[in-house]
Amino acid sequence: MSFLPLHLQPGVDLRRALETPMAEQGCEATFIVSGIGSLDQARLRLAGAAEELELNGALEVLTLAGSVAMNGSHLHASLANAQGRVLGGHLYYGCRVRTTAEVLLALLPDWHFRRECDAATGYGELAPRRREGLPG
User: Fold this and answer.
1) Residue 33 lies in a domain
2) Measured torsion, CA atoms of residues 83, 76, 45, 96, in degrees rounded to the nearest 10
3) Boundaries of each PPC domain copy (predicted)?
4) How much is the average pLDDT of 64-81?
């Protein structure tokens, strides 16, 4: 396992910026260890909701966590607005960094992550596998 700290600039799509290093590093499995920063636009899907919610204005990223697979990500965030109200949910594309985002990625070069349909949940769930030719 190796760690990759990211400092993301204003205007960057947060989710895309988290998925890009995998390809650049030749890694097929990544976890977001920690993330903080600010957004001026966010798209979240709240628990049990069918559609996503778009938020605009100054937002603080309080927590950011998840996994990044070759065929999709599963990311959660909690965000606070200017009044201190907190919302959390699944992070979608279209979350734009306002001033900065600081994220620590854990790259797992011995693993291959894919999302596969799970009959029990009906969702694409994480299917972690050790890369071929590696012990264990």
Assistant:
1) yes
2) 60
3) 1-129
4) 94
Domain that holds residue 31: 2-130
Cα–Cα dist 121/73, whole Å: 17
Strands (E) across 1-136 are located at 2-8, 29-45, 53-69, 72-80, 86-91, 96-107, 111-117, 124-130
Q: Residue 101 CB: number of other CB atoms within 10 A?
A: 24
- CATH (domain of 21): 3.30.1330.80
Looking at residue 122, its pLDDT comes to 87
Q: Tell the residue number behind the tokens 């895309």, with chain if given.
A: 16
> Any idea what the Cα angle at residue 94 is, between residues 26 and 20, rounded to 5°?
10
Do residues 9 and 93 make contact, with C-beta atoms less than 8 angstroms apart?
Answer: no
What is the token pair recorded at 35? 């993330």
User: How many Å apart are CA 59 and CA 115, to the nearest integer?
Assistant: 29
**Whether this model's pTM surpasses 0.70:** yes
- In this structure, is residue 53 part of a structural domain? yes
Residue 136 lies in a domain: no
Question: Would you say residue 135 lies in a domain?
Answer: no
Query: Based on the structure, what is the number of domains in the chain?
Result: 1
